[in-house]
Structures are given as structure tokens and as C-alpha cells.
Input
Amino acid sequence: MIDMARGDLKTGRFRDLVTQLLGLWLLLAVFLDGWAHLNLPGLETFFTPWHAALYSGMAVTALWTAWVIWRNRAPGQPLSEAIPAGYRGTMVGVALFAVAGGLDLVWHETLGIEISLDALVSPTHLLLGFSLLLILGTAVRSARSASRAGSFEWTTGELLAVVLMTGLGAFFLIYCSAFVRSGPTALFIPMPIGSPGRLQSEMPVIVTLASYLLTTALIVAPFLFTLSAAGRPVRGIVTMLVATVAWLPAVMIGLRPTTIAGAAGATVAAVLADVLLAWLPKVWLGRPLPAVTAGLAALVWTGQLVAFGLVDGIRWPISLWLGAVVLSAAAAAGLALLSTWGPARSGSVPQIGAPVR
Output
């Protein structure tokens, strides 16, 4: 009986890994399509190689999902009862993508192709994004179901699911990503309140500060999620998240020198953060956790700013660029504090914020 359970677990993990590798295909196709829209002017048709990469990936994913369900079916068992744990959401995602894809075709043929920010907030594109999120999260849902019988341990497929979902978030929030804006390298001259043109002068700074806050949340939230499930930081998790959030948007907008430097600096800082986390005493994963996430955010953005300074120079006053780091660290600490809110729950998996003995 135990051997059969272990065999089922290994089979399920392999199945989930294949599903997530198909998800990687889908995510890269999404960024490829985004790159085409940003870098190829005059793209005025729905039928492009970039859309072909995305929709062919979805077709393969749909076939794979159908095969998984059929393979899991026992003789005489209805197909509705043969769906593996976690794959109902995948089925919904595939079906929703088909509907959204048809609507997107009608939208483009009727209203034309979006060429700016509206492409990221188009209703049909948001519906496509939600369907992809359901598909990319398959391994996490599957693992949550399997972990009821024992302690949770992150596998390659499950980590890939978290990274892919984070990458999808980075795509749809690229217009306010701190990795595509090199705001601190731009000259900013503070103007007194009431001066003509003050709002126009401050707007790029305001947008950049908001980008730091949002991008911090995009990195720290999945970090806290992985920590809450396993009770210890997953090896390399900060590097995986930062590299995904930094490099995919950087490639999508065209690999500008300053953007490359910022992404590289943040990635190096993320590697250092993972090394420090590996040596972190368990007691720091309890109530002091907000200090840990604050340190992570401060380290990542300091790495980016150092790279900016080496490549192009920082032209913001120290009150601004240092304030951006402190503000991001405070946001990261706030997220960790929220994750610790509420009474401690019993169970084999340590909870974030609970004292670790």
C-alpha cells in the first residue's frame, strides 16, 4: 500500500512537472507577443507568429490535460470523477482561454489592435490572463491536495508554478514595474509647492515610487507564500522570483542598457539574499519575519541602484532614492506582518509568524 502511494505521488509529480513546462511555453509566448507589440510597429492583424506560438501552446496544453484525465480514469468511472486533484481549475482555464481567444479575435477584427497601455487592460486580454493563471497554478493546487496526508515539500513543478504565476503578474503589471523604469537615473529638481509645472515635474518620480512599491509586493508575496507552506525559505527562491520579475520585462521592452544593469544588480543582490537566508536561524522566521522581508527588499533595490550608479549615474537627490529603498522595505515588512495576523494554527507545517522552537 505504501509503495503504491509512493508510486502515485511520483507519477503525480511528473504529471504536474509536464503541465508546468507547458505553462512555461505559454508564459514565454505571452512575453514574445508583448515584445512584438512593443517593438514591431504596424502590427495590425490578429494572425501573427506570436499569436501562433501562444495558441499552439494552448492547444498542446488542452490535449495534455485531456490525456491526463483519461489516463487517470478507472474502468467504468465517469470522466467527471477521474479529474486529478488540481486539474479542475486547469480544465476551466483551458475552456476559458478558448472563449476569451474567440472574443479577442472578434475584438481585434472589429476594433483593431491595441498599440499602447490599453493592450494590457483590454477586457479580452485580462480574461486570457485569468485563464492562464488558472493553468499556471495547476501544480500548486495539486500539491495542496496531496499535502493533506503529510508535511509539505516543494518540488520542481510546484516551484515552477509559483514562478510562472509571478511572471504572469509581471507581464500584466509591466507598465508599473520598477525594472522597466530607470527613474533614479533621471534628473529631478525639486520645485516649491505652487510653482508652475510642479506636478508635471513630479509625476515621473511619483510613478517610479509607486512602481517600487508594487514590484516589491510582486516579489515578497510569493516569497511569503512559499515560506508559509514549507516553514523554511526554499533554496534560491528570491533569485528565481527577482530574475523572473526583472529579466522577462527587460527583454520584452528591448534590453536597454540601463534596464539590463538594474536587472543584473538586483539579481546579484537576490543571490546574496538567498545565501543569507540559508544561514538564517529559524527564530527569525517567527515574529521577526517583517525585519527579514524588509531586509530582502532593501538588499534587492540597493543592488539595482548600485548598478544604476555604475552604468549611468543616480541623479535623484539622496532623500528620494534612499527613501524609495526605505519605503519598499516598509512595504515588505507590512506584507509579512499581515501574513502573521491571526491566531496560530495547529498542524505539521509551521505557520508564518508563529514562534519557531
